[in-house]
Design goal:
- The protein is globular.
- Helix 3 runs antiparallel to helix 7.
- It is built from 9 helices and 4 strands; from the N terminus they run αααααααβαβββα.
- Strands 2-1-3-4 form a 4-stranded mixed β-sheet.
- It is an alpha+beta fold.
- The chain has 2 domains: 102 residues, N-terminal domain of the delta subunit of the F1F0-ATP synthase (Peroxidase, domain 1); 72 residues, Glutaredoxin, CATH 3.40.30.
Length: 184
């Protein structure tokens, strides 16, 4: 499989590529992908886990021990657990968000899907996500994997990025445009 030089050029991209290739060779892409989604949700919901990942004060040994303790509690597969141990040992846990994003891009490319980064002011419901996927599939001609982010600062609407194309339908941008037009 050819992987993009853009993904491999970054540190997180190299880690994601290594994880992706190992998961592909072990036929565990879906399992690892599900574990990474669980990990991402756990990080979003736990201040302690975010501090563990971000703190430069936690040493290699302590970080690796902490990761080994939380992996079974989160229900992550052994391959992802070992990978997190390597990140902890190499003091690269702070790269996990970027690694997950790059892994998703590699997986989407492997499945011939497009990847859409979608930012909304509030969490989207399952029916809204399904409608958005259908609309994006119609626009791109491919299945679309959606990476959702919530940013209350956009006030409402959506910001959708697919590849190099971006559609900013946020209320914040519309208000800024209106304010600029009113200034003359």
């Amino acid at each position: 499989m050819e992987t993009s030089g853009g993904i491999q050029a970054s540190l997180s991209g190299r880690y994601a590529t290594a994880l992706f290739e190992l998961a592909r060779d072990e036929r565990q892409l879906d399992t690892v992908s599900a574990s990474l989604e669980t990990l991402k949700a756990s990080i979003a919901g736990s201040d302690e886990l975010r501090r563990l990942i971000a703190s430069p004060l936690i040493g290699r040994t302590e970080a690796k021990a902490a990761i080994a303790a939380v992996v079974p509690a989160m229900g992550l597969d052994p391959l992802t657990g070992n990978f997190l141990g390597v990140l902890a040992q190499n003091r690269r846990l702070d790269q996990i968000d970027a690694v997950i994003r790059a892994f998703r891009q590699l997986l989407a490319r492997h499945r011939n899907e497009a990847t859409a980064d979608v930012t909304s002011a509030h969490p989207l419901g399952d029916d809204q996500i399904a409608a958005l996927k259908a609309k994006l599939r119609q626009q791109t001609g491919r299945d679309v994997a959606i990476d959702l982010k919530v940013d209350p600062a956009i006030l409402g609407g959506l910001i959708v990025k697919v590849g190099s194309r971006m559609v900013d339908g946020s209320i914040r941008t519309k208000l800024n445009t209106l304010a600029t037009a009113m200034k003359g």
